[in-house]
Design brief:
alpha/beta; 2 domains; binds UDP-4-deoxy-4-formamido-beta-L-arabinopyranose; UDP-galactose 4-epimerase, domain 1; Rossmann fold
Length: about 325
């Protein structure tokens, strides 16, 4: 009953590996280490390779007695995906096909997939539930839609059972300060706020304060990475218990503005965080937050960490590095 975690040395992957091990589950991480970091595995077993290497996937699954896969391995930068789309189609979509072919050959029948709220694009209604139309606005988001479809079709053709987890804005770090999100390889708000708070960059550039939101800045559903890790365990257990495949949102159901993230960080760090209001970032929606009731009902999972806990954990981790 070993769980193979592709992209296990990445941000959300490493937090999931850590949680699974703390629960006494057998885990093997699979990562190319192109963007992952070996140290973030905290000593978990690792196979270094490409998910597109079908034979290696099959062999790894057989050698380790893999019964379940949690599939994180993918490129995840929306901006980069518009500059270098071929890289995204190949690694994310084609890679997923090879992963599935290799895993199915080894008899794996269950898969939890790292999807994204990016599949909804700019939603017409908030909160966003799983019935909202899929309207990806960049190549990265489209690869997540296509990967969801590919996985679902393997359910039809091969009996694979799956859970696609659509994350809202993952943020924060492990409570014990061991792992977190490297700010050198991200464009996401929370790590950039930490960088500014710790004086490692200039002011945070706030992309627009003229949105139709309470304080004019963009509103997102920030979810603690350890809450996300817990949801993966719930999804694995859901499939292991024999339940059916699902698409499910993972968010808190609550939105926070950019200025609220800055204020929470000031409280956590005890120092002012410099920021500057600049123009809107093209393509940014005003407000996105999840309807997460399906996760509560089907997975019996609910996010438990507040924005305060997200920024406190992130600040702790970044300040120790
Ligand atoms: C959050 C808010 C910005 C940076 C992206 C991807 C999405 C998903 C999560 C994976 C927005 C504002 C940001 C900055 C700012 N990833 N902001 N200054 O855009 O909601 O989602 O990450 O699936 O696919 O698109 O996250 O962290 O970039 O932005 O003012 O320097 O912070 O405008 O309101 P986003 P983000």
């Amino acid at each position: 009953m070993t769980i193979l975690v592709t992209g296990g040395a990445g941000y959300i992957g490493s937090h999931t590996v850590k949680l699974l091990r703390s629960l006494g589950r057998d885990v093997v991480a699979f990562d190319s280490l192109e963007r992952g970091n070996r140290a973030s595995l905290l000593g978990a077993p690792l196979v270094v390779g490409e998910i597109a290497d079908e034979d290696l996937i099959e062999r790894t699954c057989r050698d380790h007695g893999v019964t379940d896969i949690v599939h994180f391995a993918a490129y995840k930068s929306a901006g980069e995906s518009m500059q270098r789309p071929g890289m995204y189609w190949r690694n994310n979509v084609q890679g997923t096909v090879h992963l599935l072919e290799g895993a199915l050959r080894a008899g794996v029948t269950r898969l939890v997939f790292s999807s994204s709220a990016a599949v909804y694009g700019n939603p017409v209604h908030v909160p966003v539930d799983e019935t909202a139309p899929l309207r990806p606005e960049n190549v990265y988001a489209e690869t997540k839609v296509v990967m969801e479809r590919v996985i679902s079709w393997y359910g039809t053709t091969h009996g694979l059972r799956w859970a696609s987890l659509r994350y809202f804005n993952a943020a924060g770090a492990a409570d014990d300060g061991t792992i977190g999100e490297d700010w050198s390889i991200t464009t996401n708000l929370v790590p950039l706020v930490m960088k500014a708070a710790l004086g490692a960059s200039g002011p945070v550039l706030v992309f627009g304060n003229d949105y139709p939101t309470a304080d004019g800045t963009g509103v997102r559903d920030y979810i603690h990475v350890e809450d996300l890790a817990t949801a993966h365990v719930a999804a694995i257990d859901h499939l292991m218990a024999g339940h059916g495949s699902i698409n499910v949102n993972l968010g808190t159901g609550h939105g926070s503005s950019v200025l609220e993230v800055l204020a929470a960080t000031e409280r956590a760090s005890g120092t002012p965080v410099p920021y500057e209001i600049v123009a809107r970032r093209p393509g940014d929606p005003a407000m996105v937050y999840a309807d997460s009731t399906l996760a509560e009902r089907v997975l019996r999972w609910k996010a438990s960490r507040s924005l305060e806990e997200i920024v406190t954990s992130a600040y702790l981790w970044h300040s120790k590095r």
